[in-house]
Amino acid sequence: MNKYSVNRLSLIQYIFIIFETQVGIGVLSLPRDLVITAGSDGWISILLGWILSMLFSLVVIKIMEKNAGYTFLELLSKYFGKWVGKSLSILWILYTAYAASVVMFSTIHIIKIWIVPDMRDFILMILFIIPIYMITKQGIRVIGLFAEFVFLISVWMPFLLLLTLKSTHWLYLLPIAKDGLFPILSTVKSTILSFLGFELAFILYPFLKDKKSASKGIVIANSLSMIIFLMVTVITFVKFSPEEIKDYVYPTLNLLKLIRLPFLERLEITFLAFYLFTLFMTIIPYLYTAVLGASQLVGKQDHRNVLRILICLWILLSFFFLPSSSQVTQMGKSWGMLGTYCAYGFPIFLWIYGWLFHHVRKGQKQ
Fold first, then answer.
1. Given its phi and psi angles, is residue 139 left (phi above 0), alpha (psi -120 to 50 degrees) or beta?
2. How far apart are CA 251 and CA 240, in angstroms?
3. Which of 31, 133, 142, 331 could form a disulfide linkage to 138, CB 3.0–4.6 angstroms apart?
């Protein structure tokens, strides 16, 4: 792994990249997604989703530990051969590129609705792409530094929601499991989608300085995400009635509208302005994964040319593709479906296949 000697990630950077990738869009809409299927018991589904995400995250780490010295794309070629490995690599690249695109267009949609409704999509696209391009082109080391910066400037944001607890209705949470366990279990699907982002450990692992701490780091990242999701969801549930939450597309932002400060109005606008950095930190890791993989696939070490191509495609698309709220929601659902296969299904398949692969090779050597 000498080729990554310059671009190394500290454990803190590794944790923050995964954590900030997971939080992203999900924290804005998760309370509504949970209340639709599980009612006020949706917060229990977050805990179950957290457990599942940790288990699958550890599977990802175990796969990479067993194949130390290989990148994820090299590992696919090692296991499945040149052509099947490249085909799987292309699918992975398309998945991460699509994930980055979904978050980018969702971000533009949210900013248009809440802050600048009259601004054209392509203008917002260009404005957002400038910092995203400048950070992504520098590689993983700068992305790690940016993740630390984003954490420092946004650490106050969850605690802002505590200001809404002046007049709440904790009885909205009772009785617990009033409709039985089935709604809670069926809602776990929504929560595990909110934890998407841990699959990027496939890509981040080779860059990590202290690889022995990879498991600890990914558990911490998932746990931080769980705490934020749980905090936002519970506060929303005790502030709004279950029927009221269903009327809000992004109930977290509606929650912020209730906060009144003597020196500031429209707090949700200020919140969103700062939260843009967190949204960028969802886009950038997926974008970097896509362009790095595409570059490696064609035998190039420099990922910047592929990055420029994808950026130009985004700008061109923003002139013609103006997604509505329903289209943004549908894009999010399709990303969630793909993420279920890529982040939860594929690691289990790869782990079993890898065990058989190593077992067979060991038998052949003997």
1. left
2. 9
3. 142
- Report residue 143 as tokens: 């992305």
CA 329 to chain centre: 16
297-335 pLDDT, tens per residue? 988 888 999 999 999 999 999 999 989 888 998 998 899
Is the pLDDT score of 41 beyond 80?
yes
d(CA 273, CA 279): 10
User: In this structure, are residues 190 and 321 in contact, taking their beta carbons and an 8 Å threshold?
Assistant: no
Q: Measuring CA to CA, which residue among 213, 234, 269 is closest to residue 27?
A: 234
**Crossing angle for the helix pair 325-339 and 82-114, nearest 10 degrees?**
150
Above 50 in pLDDT, residue 2? Answer: no
Interval 86-115: pLDDT, tens:
999 999 999 999 999 999 999 999 999 998
Contact 116, 124 (CB under 8 A): yes
Which 8-state DSSP code applies to residue 161? G
pLDDT at 37 over 80: yes
Q: What are phi and psi of 232, to 5 degrees?
A: -65, -45
C-beta pairs of 344-349 under 8 Å, 24+ apart in sequence: 344/52, 344/56, 344/192, 347/56, 347/59, 347/60, 347/63, 347/199, 348/56, 348/59
Q: How many residues are recorded in the chain?
A: 366
294: amino acid identity, one letter:
A
Nearest to 21 by CA among 147, 128, 132: 147
Q: What is the mean pLDDT of residues 51-70?
A: 92
pTM: 0.93
SS3 content of the chain, % helix, strand, coil (to 5): 80, 0, 20
Q: What angle do CA 140, 59, 98 make, to 5 degrees?
A: 50
Structural contact between residues 67 and 75, judged by C-beta atoms closer than 8 angstroms:
yes
CA atoms of 227 and 19, how far apart (whole Å): 11
